[in-house]
Amino acid sequence: MFLIILGIKLVPLVLLSSLHKCAAPSEFLGNYSLLVGDAASYIDPIENWLSRDSYFYFNGNENIYAGRMPYYGILYLIPRIFLSAPIAGDLITLLQLLLDVLACQLAILLVYRITGNSLAAFLTFIVISTSQFVSYWNYYLLPESLGINLLVISVYLLITQLKAEKLIVRYSGYAFLSFAVLLKPYFIAFIPIGACMNWLALKNQTSGKRILSSSLAFIIPVLVTAILLSPWTIRNYTISGKFIPMQQNLSAGYNFSKADVAYMNFLKSWGGSITHWDKRSAGCFFHQEDLSQCDYKFPAYLFGKGIEQKDLDEARIKFQNVKKHPSDSLEAIVGQDFDSLTRIIQTNYKFENLIVGPFMIAKQFLFHSGSYYLPISKSNPCFQSPQLVYKMLQSLLYYITLLGGTIGLFIILLQNRAAYWIAVIPVFIIFLFSFVLRATEFRYFLPAYPFLVISFGISFHALGLSRLNNVYIVSILNHYFRKLL
Q: How would you label 356-385 residue by residue, b for 16+ Cβ within 10 Å and e otherwise?
């Protein structure tokens, strides 16, 4: 199965990579590795360490020494010591692709283990093998792909080895979870969640065994993570005198001015999106000089209780002015203006601030094209109209998974405590980014997607959509999946 999935993944990814390169060749480090967006904050510190013997990246204003943790960069460093940067980047892409294929295989097997239904597993195989929603990120020199796939491997082991006799086998999934935390720091929340999942799954055990097992489910990953983080923490304390176990702040040292922070807080306060590169976001209105490049209209609920369109127009002009002519005094004025607007929202628009805003963000977070990441666009020099068919199929696949997966989440919560992990992760991701951080960047939803695919397979079985018990192909599939197990 591994080689089959690899072949299915490889062909479209190579073609899509060529399309991306046709549109933006400067974004590639190697032939198949993309160094764009946040990637520089992971790769530049490694290059600086090699050339200057110091781990840091320049954020446009100053050197940041405790920004991104080095664990993703170490994977790049190992081949980089002996090879050129482009080849090292391509090797990371290959590693990410192979781990993606492994995670896909385990997701398929997990559906088969839970349902015992080969057709449900086969459906999962079709969806997860053909979807590019997570797989296209294999080309990015970012920890998204590796972190997500380590999380899938972790959950597979935690569910299937829950009652294994050997402790090292039973808790092996938590080691993979600890490695995932090194790549995506907020995954650390899954450690206490995991202990709770362990307690719920062992409902038929005695209280003593449940307490012991759940305690170990918390202690083991905490210890493993602490040990792995200790060199980085000690290094940070040595150079800064501060206790920094992960990164120096939420933005990993990015150069956000007072005006930037105030502007983002204002948009988040009522449910606006700060992803200014998306023409359908509120962020586009404030960042884009030519408003014809934006396709955004402010919601009607934003006006009438202290805020009018002219207030937003004035804030936009001042915000763009400070971007062109930065100064401390102008930063302070613009920041105060946005802070004043935010206070009006918090005072006069309490319902919109506390209820409507988060749900508006969740709507933007979940409901989009589903294929936004694909380099298929009429502006691409290599665009051909048949490519739109593939893009539409990826969008359709996303929404089928979103619908079927959501149904599956409820089925899991009602019927299968041992599989609660599958339901909890998407719910947590949506809650964290929509209701707590209020961040709408679409890629933040990526960790939820593989579990929605698994959930979709489970719902396919539970809803009785696979009742073909005596069909010859089913017996073949059953035999095949049993061999894989």
A: bbbebbbebbbebebbebbbbeeeeeebee
